Amino acid sequence: MRKIHIIQLILYLLIPALAYSQVDDYKVVDIVLNGNVKTKDYIIYIEIEFSIGDTLSSELLNEKIANSRLNLLRTQLFNFVDVEVVENEKNLDIVFNFQERWYYWVYPILEHSERNLSTFLYYKDFNRVNYGLAFDWYNFRGKDEVLRFKTRFGFKEHYAISYHKPGFGKRRVDGIWIFADLFRQKKAIYGVDNNIPVYVESYNKYLNNAYDLGVEYTFRPEILYFFEFGLKYQGYYFRSDTLSQNIEMPIQSFAPKASFKYDKRNSLVYPTKGFYAHFRISGIVPLNKDYADALSLTAIVQTNTKFGTSAFGLRNELFLGRMLMEKDKNLLFDEMFKFFGSYVIRGYEYYYFPSNSLVGLKNTLNWKICDFRLNVLPKILPDEFSKFFSIVYLEAFSDFAYTQSFDYQYIENDNFTDALVYSLGAGISIETYYDRLLQFHVSYNSCFDKFGIFAEFRTPIYKKY
């Protein structure tokens, strides 16, 4: 009798809990896609974190819907992604409504060659301007492929063709990228003195010619995980009287690389939530063994924290970089410059951190002033241009950098070595149409004890060239 009472008690306690869990479960009976005129359905399903037939709690379902929407926006195939949930007695139809982007871009190139707008305005050297014509075809064949052609003249001539295909194979987790580039310059950076570039110039002949032929394989086992493995064959042809390089011509080499990326941010343009990590290793293996092999290691870790339901957020980004090379052999300045040339902290836009060891930390406190979606563009334009979306942020920031001394023949009078340099400042960032980000900031430069006003207009759309 006692056993019967115990069983009854257990059932009395379990049945309400089981009933409650059943009430909270929903079954996905259909996933409806609207508005993807060009984009194939399977490209979209790759980014959706649930399937037809899944039974999920309301909390988990809402989380997966939100994540799926962000995944789809990160593909940069759509201007807007809106989700509706249609319920019928715990059976759900999940409806995705898309507004696709404009995928065909034939546009003239007129750009400065500096790494940011403020540097170009500071030097006012209009010889450092590039011009030409490019054609980008995004979402080629509706399969998220990218086809590009480029013809660019001016300061740094560039002729290129590339093709990128993600999500092929049985599991849709493989991708491939094939590219070919040719660069030519009559004026080029050959060293760094007092942390600013030093140029060598020829008015009637090209100082150097460089070409790349390469292929990359990408592997995406999960939605947020990306692996890349690549091999590039590159060649440099220098004029024999370019004594600054102190090398013979030509030089050919192989450049292998491997990288891992994890991206759970809520935006590629201006993230306010989520975690991002990118680890990369790349090498240079000259075919002529008189020149140095080199290995480059970099890591970027970024956290984005939103303070509850407020408009405030905090971004912290750590950068670590190290380049290893054979010290008893020559290394092209171009290869060394690739390592440190693109690294910058705010307030130091005009200067370089020439070293084979870099550590940087960027901290940004942001406050979203407003966001809006308007139908303000002319109605004669295609639907892809019919809506305008923007977000405006105010910012306060502090950036830090540390580099170690480095004995390298093309680097002189380094003001930043073996010292912690920092900057402080405030600014405004405006997210504009098609992921363009316009930024203005006032910064204090600790090394030179100066204030400066800087402007930057850039796009985070990842371009292979």
Question: Any chance you could write out the topology, listing elements then pairs?
Answer:
Blueprint: H1 2-23, E1 25-34, H2 41-47, E2 55-57, H3 58-74, E3 78-88, E4 91-100, E5 104-112, H4 117-123, E6 129-140, E7 145-154, E8 157-168, E9 174-185, E10 187-193, E11 196-201, E12 208-219, E13 225-238, E14 251-263, E15 274-286, E16 294-306, E17 312-325, H5 333-340, E18 357-374, E19 388-403, E20 411-412, E21 419-431, E22 437-445, E23 450-458
Parallel strand pairs: 1-4, 10-20
Antiparallel strand pairs: 1-2, 3-4, 5-6, 6-7, 7-8, 8-9, 9-12, 10-11, 12-13, 13-14, 14-15, 15-16, 16-17, 17-18, 18-19, 19-21, 21-22, 22-23
Can you walk me through this structure?
By secondary structure, the protein is mainly β. It has two domains: 2-100, Roll (Ubiquitin-like (UB roll)), CATH 3.10.20; 104-458, Porin (Beta Barrel), CATH 2.40.160.50. The protein contains five helices and 23 strands. A 16-stranded antiparallel β-sheet has the order 5-6-7-8-9-12-13-14-15-16-17-18-19-21-22-23. It has a four-stranded mixed β-sheet with strand order 2-1-4-3. The longest helix has 22 residues, at 2-23.
